[in-house]
Amino acid sequence: MDWKDDNVLVTGATGFLGTWLTKALIERGANVIALVRDEVPNAPIRTMGIYPKIHSIVRGDITNYDDVKRVFSDYAIDTCFHVAAQVIVGSAKQDPTTTFNVNIKGTWNVLEAARAWNNCKRIIVASTDKVYGQTKVPKEGLHEGLPLNALFPYDASKVAVDVLSRTYSQTYNLPIGVTRCCNIYGGGDLNFTRIIPGAIKSILMNQNPIIRSDGTPIRDFIHVDDAVSAYITLAEKIDKIDRNEPYGEAFNFGSNEKINMLDLTNKIIQVSGRKHLKPDVQGKAKPGFEIDEQWISAKKAKTKLGWEPKVKLEEGLKKTISWYEDYFSKIGKY
Length: 334
Description:
3-stranded mixed sheet
């Protein structure tokens, strides 16, 4: 597919994933239209020099339908990547209504605006692997045929996003693809409550990285380069997916590498070269608040889309640490 001069709406363009997705689309020649609510002076999209290259910055709020509808019609949107969301699990627990408003209402606004515009060729919506909830993980990993059993506020909001997207696709024949990525990491994630950026920041400050749990929870992590590749691959192939199945399919995207939090933190320390530091295992995470074991199978993405991850964990951590070293040197503070 040739992205040159395609009008591409990216919601959440100034966020972590949105920044790298925007960069990749601009490099492919797309006209990126970004729906932006707040200005963040030290946001990576600015420090990386991407912001001035965006075709159009539109001031608006994803929860305001008129704002979203105007973007589709005024900018003749060909493709939409809907990645705007409230993504912090702890914040979702403290303030579920805001999370539901941003994640669920924001999504139906995008879907309804796309339906009203009726000229969008592909719509990619961000769900998450968290939609599977606290369930026994099959040996091969969680797969798309499993029920969506999420019960925590953030996870439940994403179940609604996932189902709404597939509903609009099935009912209105909209060209929608749903991504269920595992934990995305890489440079540009400023949510330092997350284990990878949080551990890296502590290490760069010469402090022992904190593990809030007892270190035993198991996850898989996908580098942001692979996540961007997943989104773009799905967008490029959404109209080539087997027509025996309707639009609106969901796809897992993962790294095929699972690891527990203690081993992950030790690996970050090792890769950083600051081996005098040690994980500070606090064991304060409340039992049942987060899922104990979760990793996914990306077999369907390989089979139907030809997509596979390319960045191994150790390589990705090296790239990520290097990014944060450069970032903190640019802004002059940790």
